[in-house]
Amino acid sequence: MTVKYPQKIKVAVLPFGELMRINTSVEGKMEFSGVEGEILNVVLNSLGLQYDFMIPQDLQWGRQDKEGNWSGLVGMIQRDEADLAFSYLSMTEERSRVIGYSKPYMFEDHTFISQIPSNRRLTLTFLYPFDFSTWICLFLTLVLMSTLLAIFKSGIQSLGNQFFRLFASLMTQAVNTDGGSRKYNMLVAFWLFFAQVIVLSYSSTLLSFLIQPLKEAPIRNFNELSRAVQRGNCQANFTNFSLSFLLNSNMDHFMKLGKIVSSNNWIANTSALSSETVIKANFFLALNKNLAKSYFGTRNDLFFSEDRLFTSYLAFGYNKRFCCVSKLNTFISRISQAGLYGKYLRDRSMKLFFKSFKRSNKSKTETPLSFDDLISEFSLLIVGLSLSFVIFLAEIVYSRFVLV
Fold first, then answer.
1. 3-state secondary structure of 16
2. Which residue numbers delimit the Ionotropic glutamate receptor C-terminal domain (predicted)?
C-alpha cells in the first residue's frame, strides 16, 4: 500500500539568536540560517514537501498552564495549528503527552559560564609558590635538622645557632660548617642539596606567578554555586526550563538555589545572547553547553564549568496525526550518523574565531609588569633590609657598651 503524503504541511519555528536566524526574502519567503537553521533546511529538503512557516506569538518553546494548555511551539501543535515544530526543542515527559517526538538529532549538557576570576593582589604573594602544608613540612624539617646537627656537635654549637645557619642557607647564604664528624658532614651535605632544590623550586614558581599572576579560585560546580548564591555573593541566571528542574529536584542545594532564582526572577534571556554579551564579575549564566560554545567558545575571559545540571535531547516535535514520522526519523538518523550538527557547530565556532581574532589583533597591547605586580616582593625586601639595619645597630651598641 502506497502512503499518500500531503502536498503542504505547516511548520512552527522559533528564532533563537545565532543558532536559528529567520530572515524574510524579497518575495516574502522565510529563510533559515545558523546551526539549527541548517539542520531544518536539510530535513525539509529531504522530505520533499511544501511548507507554510509560522512563528508563535509569545516566542516560547512551550509552558503548561494550570488548565493543561500549552504555549509556544508545543501549544501550536496541541491546537492543530502546526504539523511540525522545530528550533532547539528539548524532549520532556510533560511535552510528550501532547506532542510526538522524532528521533533526537543532538543531546545537550546544561552547565554554566562565568567571568574568569581576577588576579590575586595580596601582600603575601611571596608565600603562594608553596601551599600551607609544604611550608609546615619545611619548617619541621629545618627544626629536625638543626636538632640533629646540634646533637652531633656534642654541645659545641647550640640548637639556635644551628637553626639560623640552616635558615641562612635557605636564603642562599654561605654556610660555615666548622668541621665535624662524618655523620655531621653527611647531614650538612644532604641539607645543602635539599636547600638548593627548595630554593630553585621556589624561585622558578615565584617567577611563573610574576609572568602569569595567580587567579582567585573559581566556582566550579552547581553545589559551590548554590552555596555562593545563598551567601548573597553572586547572581545566577537560569532559563525557565532549567529553573523548573531546580525547583522539582530532590537535592537540597538544587531546591534552595531554585527558590532564590525564582524569588529574584533571575531568568536568562537566551534569545538576546551574542558573542559580545558582557559577563560581569560575580554573575553566572546557566545554559546548554553547545549554545555556550557557539556564542562564547572563542573568548578567553570566560570560565566554562565542566559540571552539568542535566542532559536533554533535542528533536523535532510533531502532531500525533502527522503522516510522515517514519520518513522524518529516517532522515534524522542519517543526519546523526553523519555528524552534521557537530560539523555546523564547528563551522559556526570557526567563523566566530576569525572575527574575534581580527578584533584581538587590532586591540591587543602588551602590558609590562607594574608596581602592583611586585608589591609583595618589594615589601618583603624592605622588611628584610629594615631588620638587617636594626641588627647592625644592635651589634654596634653591644660591641661598644657591653663588651667594654
1. strand
2. 8-347
Regions of the chain where pLDDT drops below 70: 1-7, 119-124, 154-157, 175-180, 209-214, 271, 352-377, 402-404
pLDDT at 256: 93
Residue 95 · residue 317 · CB < 8 Å: yes
Distance CA 99, CA 62 (A): 11
Cβ-contact 35, 348 below 8 angstroms: yes
pLDDT at 365: 47
Query: For residues 134 and 176, is the Cβ–Cβ distance under 8 A?
Result: no
- Backbone φ and ψ for 237, nearest 5 degrees, come out as -100, 130
CA gap 71, 195 in Å, rounded = 71
Here the cell at position 18 is 545565532
Domain count for the chain, please give it: 3
Are both 199 and 221 inside the same structural domain? no
Domain assignment present for 153: yes
35 belongs to a structural domain: yes
249, 163: one domain: no
pLDDT at 179: 63
Query: Angle at the Cα of 20 (from 8 to 266), degrees rounded to 5?
Result: 125
At 109, give phi and psi (nearest 5°). -95, 135
Q: What is the pLDDT of residue 1?
A: 44
Residue 233 shares a structural domain with residue 182: no
pLDDT tens by residue, 205-214 = 877 766 666 6
Predicted local distance difference test score (pLDDT) of residue 120: 66
User: According to the model, what pLDDT value does residue 140 have?
Assistant: 92
Of 254, 282, 310, the last residue of a domain is 310
- Shared domain check, 89 and 14: yes
In a domain, 249, yes or no: yes
Domain that residue 300 falls in: 114-118+217-310
Domain of 78: which CATH number? 3.40.190.10
Q: Write the DSSP string, 207-269.
A: HHHHHSPPBPPPP-SHHHHHHHHHTTS-EEEB-HHHHHHHHT-SSHHHHHHHHHHHHHT-B--
State if pTM tops 0.85.
no
How far from the centroid of its chain's Cα atoms is residue 324's Cα?
42
| DSSP secondary structure of 50-87 | EEEEE--TT--S--B-TTS-B-HHHHHHHTTS-SEEES
In a domain, 384, yes or no: no
Q: Are 162 and 201 in contact (CB under 8 A)?
A: no
